[in-house]
Design a protein that fits this description.
The protein has 622 residues and is an alpha+beta fold. It has 18 helices and 20 strands. The strands form 5 sheets. Strands 1, 3, 4, 6, 8, 9 and 11 form a 7-stranded mixed β-sheet that branches. A 5-stranded mixed β-sheet has the order 15-16-14-19-20, with helices on both faces. It starts with a helix and ends in a 9-residue tail after the last strand.
Length: 622
């Protein structure tokens, strides 16, 4: 009996050791920590993260941790965090170890804007858990910082490992590219990203304004539908990039959910109608025209239905329909091209660029392609090329119509002299309208859209002429570089609309104060302004600068019930009159701007709300 009991104890001991070993082996697989040392701009988590698919979406954090201990997490397939449209929820886990003692706070960013619900859990060594929630099912104000992508502050004390769990549940495409940033690194990366996005929307805005002027001048329906196409597709990308939720409807989770299928449908309506008008399908291919009308009716109905349908039904349907829509436009273009309509060549090239970019983006949504730079931003690149080519195609179409008119005029000259003259007058009128539209566009490009002052480019052109005259005549020429003090605080406290009113008020005030001096005033950028003072030396320019500073300070800017005191720091620089008259004046502009800017920095360093000159011996306090 004693031997049997000792044998049973021995077997139980062996079994316990085996279970402990198995548990330790399973734990060891997930215990490798990702070391954060702050040496990288951003730390992508895809190579280090493991995921678990909770198909019914009912697991909480305790269940997710149990699944981790049971070894049900797996590495990302090929390091790709795009799974397409999937049911349930996805859990992601990584162990983090912060070695950077100077950065206890790290920012976790999911670089995909359309996820419905994201829960972030950080379990610390002492057992307590930090929980944050985000996604477009919550108001935009719930995010850690104001940024287009969901983001979360993580507290990661130095040399203390922490387990990070991220739960994502969404009716949109399951794309979870997670990246960790230090505050400084995020500022750098977001600045570059915002610059790229701004450049893209700047191209769209320039094309919109240019073609708006042409449409208002020529009253050609093709330009109107082109404008609708640009506007609607711009709205699509605003939605996909998260900028729509950030700026247009930050408090409407309903619009954040419905904006993708609605904007896609609107964009396709614009595309189809523009194609019908540009290609002249009603005259050149009646069957194709009817199919195009059917496409328009389909997207109108789908847009209406999208307000009621679930997101995971409406959005995949709209995304898939985009392929058929663009493919049909390509087919219609080929048919019209075979029938001798030459402007269709550029039209076909433009739609090929757009089809390629849209195809890559949609393939990411369905998990068919990995999310890299060319596939993530392919739709922006393709659409920018498409819209540029379409604008060229519109000009080519107009030129073709003009050439066709000239041919008709030449053939009918002997028989229809009076009609030829009438047609020629109409054509000249159209060309005059086009030239006038170009002139108005050129004038508008020289002005700052907010303040109405001349812009930086126009200032450089005129300042070069003033500099040449100054060198030739020996008369003095001075520069003022002006910066409104603490303007970011005005924007943060009162909002950007009030800040815009303050900029306009400052521009008017400076314009009135500088009017007696024949000054050239321009907006240099942001809250900075620049002034050229012909005929004034350094001392005279300093007196003008001091007078200008006092004008700004004496009377506050009134916006609604707010009375906002605005002060300015001013740097003054006088161009040396003994410069060689034969020197290249264009090369002297940038050094002059730099000297004025250095004087402005000195004014800021001396406490702001003062005037400083570029000559050290002549600097004085005001």
């Amino acid at each position: 009996m004693g031997r049997g009991w000792r044998g049973l104890q021995l077997w139980l001991l062996v079994l316990g050791l085996c279970l402990v070993g198995a548990s330790w082996a399973a734990f060891a697989k997930t215990d490798t920590a990702l070391v954060l040392d702050g040496t990288h701009v951003g730390v992508p988590l895809e190579p280090h993260i493991a995921y678990y698919h909770d198909v019914d979406g009912r697991q909480d954090l305790i269940g997710a941790e149990r699944a981790l201990r049971e070894g049900r997490y797996a590495p990302l397939p090929n390091g790709n965090a795009a799974f397409g449209f999937q049911p349930g929820a996805y859990w992601f886990h990584v162990r983090l170890l912060n070695r950077d003692r100077n950065e206890p706070r790290w920012l976790l960013v999911q670089q995909y804007a359309l996820s419905d619900r994201i829960d972030v859990y950080t379990r610390h060594p002492d057992g307590h858990v930090d929980h944050l929630a985000g996604g477009d099912s919550l108001p935009f104000s719930s995010r850690s910082i104001r940024y287009r992508h969901p983001n979360f502050w993580l507290n990661l004390p130095a040399d203390q490992p922490a387990d990070l769990y991220v739960r994502v549940q969404s009716q949109s495409s399951m794309q979870v590219p997670l990246t960790l940033f230090t505050p400084t690194a995020f500022t750098e990366v977001s600045r570059d990203a915002q610059f790229g996005i701004g450049l893209y929307y700047g191209i769209l805005l320039a094309l919109f304004i240019y073609n708006l002027v042409l449409w208002l001048s020529l009253r050609d329906a093709s330009y109107f539908w082109y404008l609708l196409h640009i506007s609607a597709f711009g709205l699509v990308l605003l939605t996909l990039n998260g900028l729509g939720f950030e700026y247009l409807w930050p408090r409407s989770t309903w619009l954040a959910d419905k904006s993708v299928p609605l904007s896609i449908c609107l964009a396709q309506v614009g595309m189809q109608q523009f194609a019908r008008t540009f290609l002249g399908l009603k005259q050149r291919w009646r069957l194709g025209d009817r199919v195009g009308l059917g496409m328009i009716a389909f997207f109108v109905l789908l847009g209406i239905a999208a307000t009621r349908l679930p997101y995971n039904v409406a959005t995949p349907l709209a995304s898939a329909a985009v392929f058929f829509s663009i493919a049909w436009i390509a087919v219609a273009t080929l048919v019209v091209l075979r029938r001798g309509y030459k402007p269709a060549q550029l039209f076909l090239l433009a739609w090929s660029m757009f089809l390629l970019g849209t195809g890559m983006f949609t393939a990411i949504a369905f998990g068919l392609l990995p999310k890299v730079f060319i596939t993530e931003y392919g739709v922006q690149i393709g659409s920018a090329l498409e819209m540029l080519l379409l604008s060229v195609a519109l000009g080519y179409r107009y030129a073709s119509l003009r050439n066709e008119n000239e041919r008709i005029v030449h053939e009918a000259k002997t028989q229809l002299e009076h009609k030829v003259e009438q047609r020629t007058v109409e054509l000249r009128s159209a060309l005059a309208q086009l030239e006038d539209a170009h002139e108005r566009l050129r004038e508008s490009s020289q002005r700052d859209g907010l303040t109405g002052l001349h812009n930086r480019t126009h200032f450089r052109n005129v300042f070069q002429e003033l500099l040449e005259k100054s060198q030739q005549s020996g008369r003095p020429l001075s520069l003022l570089m002006i910066d409104l003090d603490h303007f970011k605080q005005i924007n943060d406290r009162y909002g950007h609309l009030v800040g815009d009113e303050c900029l306009c008020w400052a521009a008017r005030t400076m314009g009135h104060a500088l009017q007696p001096h024949r000054a050239l005033l321009a907006r240099f950028g942001g809250e900075e302004f620049i002034v050229a003072l012909p005929g004034l030396d350094l001392q005279a320019a300093s007196r003008v600068a001091e007078d200008l500073r006092q004008h700004l300070r004496e009377q506050p800017c009134r916006s609604g019930e707010h009375a906002i005191t605005i002060t300015a720091s001013i740097g003054v620089h006088a161009i040396a009159r003994e410069a060689d008259n034969d020197s290249d004046c264009d090369n002297a502009i940038d050094p002059a701007l730099q000297d004025a800017d250095q004087a402005l920095y000195q004014a800021k360093a001396d406490g702001r709300d003062c005037v400083r000159t570029s000559a050290p011996e002549e600097r004085r306090h005001h």
